[in-house]
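Holo model, oxalic acid. Inputs:
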Amino acid sequence: MINTLLKRSGAIGARAYTNVAARDAGAALGNWTSSEKLRSWVEEFVGHMRPERVHLCDGSESEKEFMINGMVRRGTLIPLNPEKRPGSYLARSDVGDVARVEENTYICCENEADAGPTNNWKDPAEMKELMMGLYDGCMEGRTMYVVPYSMGPVGSPLSALGVEITDSPYVVQSMNIMTRMGQAALDQINSSEDGSFVPGVHSIGAPLTDPKAEDSPWPCNADTKYITHYPESRTIMSYGSAYGGNALLGKKCFALRIASTMAKEEGWLAEHMLILGVTNPEGVKKYVAAAFPSACGKTNFAMMMPTLPGWKVECVGDDIAWMRFKEDGKLYAINPEAGFFGVAPGTSDATNPMAMGCMKENTIFTNVAMTEDGDVWWEGMTKDAPSSVSDWLRRDWHADDSKSPAAHPNSRFAAPASQCPIIDEKWDQPEGVPIDAIIFGGRRSDTIPLVYQSRGWNHGTFLGATMGSEMTAAAAGTVGKMRSDPMAMKPFCGYNMADYFQHWIDMGEKTSEEKLPKIFYVNWFRKDAEGKFMWPGFGENSRVLKWVFDRTESNVGAVDTPIGYLPDISKGDLDLDGLDIDSTVVEELFAVDKSTWKSEAQVYRENFKIYGDSLPEAIQNELDALESRLA
Ligand code: OXD
Ligand code: MN
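Output:
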């Protein structure tokens, strides 16, 4: 077979990817890395997974071209019309592989109690044995890609390194967008004293045992999927899925589940938060981090176009924040990612023109519809649907007799962060940005006001701990069902959630009260009796952001209520200038009804029961205090 004899490379001096027959992998690895840990780890899995070829990634343009061409040939990627979407492609997944699979996601630590009541737990040795059984020969007939990457700016003290082994070229090129992938990250691993990196093993679980059989455009394992994490050895093993957070191991698996355990041990925070910079008309700039459950408009908020004159928002990140206190006592954040993996449906020039700007080129779309002229479309992208498109299931779809959406509700775009028209000038800086405010929020059609401020750090931690949201399509499950999602971390905290609350309480003791970020809670999703949203949202959320901004310096008033500080509407604390909204609606948006809140507190009490005695005293005290203020 001529193919196995061929050594392909990008051929630009020493900086070149290597693609060799598996039997030559040992020698190629010796040239590629000086890290003994990396070499022996890859060799072990080459032997066990038995790929036909091994490709050591360098993240170069020539590698990208080589891999994209291969995926186009196999039908995994469809090139979009270069006049409309240059450098962009459409992937359509298998029907059984469309979202994160939380029920198959495990935290495997020695003691079950350390995983806590919100995670699936398995003994690490048992789970590794199961995974190694699944990995046995799982890459036959395929290429194993070895992908070095940095989460965060390469070399930043706030960043961390990872290497993913995968047999999905779609995953590699998505990692190329979503992380700093390639030679620079490998150089860091090679030059670090202990060669330290987080190893992540991934396989789609679809060996090509019959070389004559046709490959599927989206190979995956229809029956078996496992996403497993081993916090004690800081490793990840994933099998069966090629979709998003199941397979791009830098994102949820590393930057949240493993990083949250690293952060607990090392005294920092790894959070499911966007980061934005906001500048007022006087030119004063502050940075805000905000946690919302999946598909609750985080990308929209991170790239908001303020309707308030003179206000400006710039984007640092839309999904994850790593934060540490520095010597000046302030909390600094980086976005560990390098791209946006946003939900497409609902994104439009009206709702998020900046996201639309990000994805003008060099974007990989997954599970959206394709128009007749070779561009993409999804529900909500334009006022009127095109008369016919090819839907995410590759079928003809006609707007006038459509029974199902043309784009999957969890269809996505993966676009480089640097393409965001309002990317913050500091987004890529190793020192990170100072955070003045933290916002929590959920999708709640009732009870929770548009915005309120916590009474301090511990009360703010309590607000995060009590977060709940109506479920969306980002994870497999029942859309619309209410679930408790503390700090939007329920699917992503790599250890016992009660210990995570305690970690937050402890973090609040690392600096003085005035240097701690102020904590707020927002709810854009309150509905009226007819089920219509009461607040216009999107750019109008700048009114809320303005109040938050001014509260961080006590430049605006608030009224003290049993649940926290709210803008005093009668005194004009919330800038509603020029907004066409009924005063009764505004009153309703800020109503704090004691009996409703007593029931709400009761729900918190119920939700906390799963933590038993491990619920931190400080959190229990906050609940008791809320109830006594409501009495
Ligand atoms: C995401 C998620 O993809 O939270 O960001 O599901
Ligand atoms: Mn997310």
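Residues 1-6 have pLDDT under 50 and may be disordered. Residues 250-266 form the longest helix (17 residues).
Archived with the compound record.
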